Amino acid sequence: MSDNASSADTRKVKGNTFMKDSKFIEAIVEYSEGIMLDHSNPVLYSNRSLAFLKMDQYFYAMKDAEVTIRLVPEWPKGYYRKGQAEEGAKMYDLAIISYQAGLKACSNDEVLQTAMKEAQIKYRLDLDSKKRKRKKYCVIAALFGVFIVIADMFGKPHYSFIKYPWMRFTLISMSGFLGYIFASFLLSLERSQRASLLQPPPELMQESANKPPVAPKNQFTASSSQASHSIGDSTVSHAKTE
């Protein structure tokens, strides 16, 4: 092991200690220092991804997870970290895609299988919630249309502006439709807000910590057994640091 790799491992151990004490900022600093010493260590990126996740910094958590995947495509933890970041932003459809990609590379990983099932449940619940919201606004708007019709009928019967039944029906229907459109607009804004949590914030970290050079070929991707030996047992809970 080179001096840089040894020093990076020391930084990792310090970072893990901070993580156990819930000192996530200090942990991120240690992992970042380790990454500067050893850009090709996927564990440092994975652990820092978890630290960012604990601080609800989903963009940085996702980016570190992507680097982990790029360095070690056969290690399930990178996919798990990425999916967790996307779930944190409530982008459940993206999380499902990440877990599916992980299961293609690591088909027998139980943690990924469980995570994908949970994400699918959350995705369905989210869709149901959106349907209820559209229906709610549609009904409220339609009732408002009914109120206008009743007010027009009984307010001044001789000066009614909505004289014919088809006009009343059209008004109520259009009111409900406008309610549906308004609800869809609000849901679109909500989707944009969620997606923004996975977009780079104004104050970016140093480029050297975010965009490391790709690891030398075959250094970590020679085989699953070599990867497990270099990184640690992949059966360990993915919610923990290595």
UniProtKB/TrEMBL annotation:
Regions of compositional bias (Polar residues) in chain numbering: 218-242
Superkingdom classification of source: Eukaryota
InterPro entries with a match to the protein in the record: TPR-like_helical_dom_sf, TPR_rpt
Signal peptide range: none
GO CC terms, sorted: cytoplasm
A GO term, aspect molecular function: Hsp90 protein binding
Transmembrane feature ranges: 137-154, 166-189
Annotated segments matching region Disordered: 200-242
Compartments (UniProt record): Cytoplasm
Keywords, sorted A to Z: Cytoplasm, Membrane, Repeat, TPR repeat, Transmembrane, Transmembrane helix
Full protein name: Uncharacterized protein
Organism: Ciona savignyi (Pacific transparent sea squirt)
